[in-house]
Amino acid sequence: MSNRDGVAVFTPGSIGNVGPGLDILGLAVAGAGDTVHASWGTASGITVVDTGHPDLPDDPTRNTAAIAAAAVARHAGASRGIALRITKGLPLSGGQGGSAASAVAGAMAANLLLEADLDTATLLTCALEAEATVAGRHLDNIAPSLLGGLVLIRSLEPIDVVRLPVPPTLRVVLVHPAMQLRTRDARAALPTEVPRDVALQQAANVAAMVAGACLADLALLGRAIDDRIAEPVRAALLPGFPDARRAALDAGALGCSISGAGPTAFALADSDEAATAVAAAMVAAYATAGLEARPVVTRPDLEGTRRA
Amino acid sequence: MSNRDGVAVFTPGSIGNVGPGLDILGLAVAGAGDTVHASWGTASGITVVDTGHPDLPDDPTRNTAAIAAAAVARHAGASRGIALRITKGLPLSGGQGGSAASAVAGAMAANLLLEADLDTATLLTCALEAEATVAGRHLDNIAPSLLGGLVLIRSLEPIDVVRLPVPPTLRVVLVHPAMQLRTRDARAALPTEVPRDVALQQAANVAAMVAGACLADLALLGRAIDDRIAEPVRAALLPGFPDARRAALDAGALGCSISGAGPTAFALADSDEAATAVAAAMVAAYATAGLEARPVVTRPDLEGTRRA
After folding, report:
1. Helix (H, G, I), strand (E, B) or coil at B63
2. Which of B89, B116, B124, B160 would staple B154 via disulfide (CB 3.0–4.6 Å)?
3. What angle do CA B282, B284, B290 make, to 5 degrees?
4. Which residues of A touch B (CB under 8 A)?
5. Looking at the structure, do residues B201 and B83 belong to the same domain, yes or no?
6. Residue A62: Cβ-neighbour burial (10 angstroms; 0-12, 13-18, 19+)
7. Do B25 and A200 count as a contact with CB atoms less than 8 A apart?
8. What is the pLDDT of residue A187?
């Protein structure tokens, strides 16, 4: 395939901080995503020709797709300029991994345009450089957006990520209430120290989620969605969420928590029917709390980043 | 089978706190174990006819096998007295799950004698009551000793344990240096609070161990044995251990850490040959530190508690 006319890459959105997996567990979600088109630029370096959204910067040192593409170019030793055109399918700050998806798509688009064939760890490093400038130094959105599926981040130094099996009947509900929550504020709410017993309980639940995924035990996967570190403090910043969570579980959700830093909430279910019922129950709960909420019923994205 | 002459139950030893799995991950180990023989007693309640070791109490309120047997009798609504004869195959306080094994064997022996047919959670509760009196309220030795294999403790209230697959080539090395370390002192050394990033790193490593076991990825299982909470403070109480750990990894161990609260160290390997080399390297390292050490090369016990 010639790259003369450029390459286009699609990257799905993702749930970060899946339940107790703060910073370490992420799930790629089918449906909306970001697309980045990369072609040879007339200027040197990276140029953002189209940011895809009026609120996103075209300054290549502040745009995540451009930062990641520049990192790829640097790793590849490229000298020609690259022009990026971004199509934003994901909300800017909803907790659906939008900044990470753009970073991953930017990295992969540059990688393909340059025929650099960088390995997974290097691509993750390049996207992480971008994500760190806007959302923090963590891979729990980036890694699933690149690889697809459910991904455990064992270590950042060195990068060590584990793609886990995804039970085939797993369904995903995302509910985005009409409110703003800045990732920075959501992170600032996190405790810097945690009691040892809470740390061990959290570890047990993340490990049980992994066991549930690997053993296709959806009930285990669901009941292990029990976050004792982030959710208790973040729920206080998210009116309606505690009621929506209760409604989701009452309606048959396997588990329910905050997607990334919020405000989007997510729930897992074991069938399309259950997922639809859970979505309706959550929307109704937000409505009772005076918040309009937009539901999406979908499934894990198993493919990850691919040519668009 | 008639219980007229009593029943005898064998329970294997175990590694508790497997690597980062403080209080939540345990592995049953083939070889040494404790045996409890239960028969109808002439007195009411539980009588310990033979403690199996001069240093163990025959007071049924202080003997773990008797406490667990009494709890089973209570759950079963039994009125006849039970006499216990204990054969100790495990060291009393080496970090090889000896108190837990006696508790589990006592519980199961009473369960079989009484034909009570208690479920797993109830048997665990009975053994936990005993373990809590001598070693703390945790199931990471009890659950693998009962069920066999590698067991994740997701929750104590309610009891929720997950038996994980064990890769068939996994081998276990136990090395017991000639020193005493009281479980109480080893627990007192643990921090009551941990930094959030340490808590998340620990969770990632426990989860990665679970993934390694489920996916039969022994390299992942091994490199995830990276305990940032207990090992750093306990290693300071265990002269020779840091050198033995380094020697084990240099000799090809998948991973190495402290078994339970120590002083026994454990290492995992992927073949009998590697395990033998690792054991020799660890013993040599302890010798250099002036400590005689007794090695055992074995494998996981997959069967757990059974009739003797």
Report:
1. coil
2. B160
3. 110
4. 20-25, 152-155, 160, 162, 164-165, 190-196, 198-211, 214-215, 217, 220, 223-224, 229
5. no
6. middle
7. no
8. 78
Mean per-residue pLDDT, B73-94: 94
Question: Are A160 and A11 in a shared domain?
Answer: yes
**Could you give the percent of chain A with pLDDT greater than 90?**
89
Q: Which two tokens stand for residue A84?
A: 């990026």
Q: What is the pLDDT confidence band of residue B2, given thresholds at 50, 70 and 90?
A: low
Two structure tokens written together for A229: 């570190």
Backbone angle region of A178, left / alpha / beta, with phi > 0 → left and psi within -120 to 50 → alpha? beta
Same domain, B139 and B177: no
Selecting from A23, A195, A211 the residue whose C-beta is nearest the C-beta of B214 gives A211
The interface predicted TM-score of the complex, written ipTM, equals 0.95
Is residue B306 domain-resident?
Answer: no
Which regions in chain A score pLDDT beneath 50? Answer: 1
The region, left, alpha or beta by phi > 0 then psi within -120 to 50, assigned to residue A130 is alpha
Residue B249 CA to residue B247 CA, distance in Å, equals 6
> In chain B, whose CA is at the least distance from the CA of A212?
B162
Co-location of B91 and B216 in the same domain: no
Torsion angle, CA of A187/A50/A15/A243, rounded to 10 degrees?
70
Q: How far is B216 from chain A (nearest CA, A)?
A: 11
| Within-domain flag for B121 | yes
* pLDDT at residue B113 is higher than 60: yes
A contacts of B25 (beta carbons < 8 Å): 207
| Mean pLDDT computed over B149-156 | 98
- B34 and B99 inside one domain: yes
DSSP, res A300:
B
Where is the domain boundary, B130, B147, B164?
Answer: B164
Domain count within chain B: 2
Q: What number of residues does chain A have? A: 308
Domain interval for residue A79: 7-164
Q: Which residues of B touch A (CB under 8 A)?
A: 20-25, 152-155, 160, 162, 164-165, 190-196, 198-211, 214-215, 217, 220, 223-224, 229
Q: How far apart are CA B295 and CA B175, in angstroms?
A: 4
Quick one: A243 and A151 in the same domain?
Answer: no
**For position A269, which CATH number holds?**
3.30.70.890
Whether the bond into A263 is cis, omega within 30 of 0: yes
In this structure, the answer to whether residues A184 and A239 fall within a common structural domain is yes
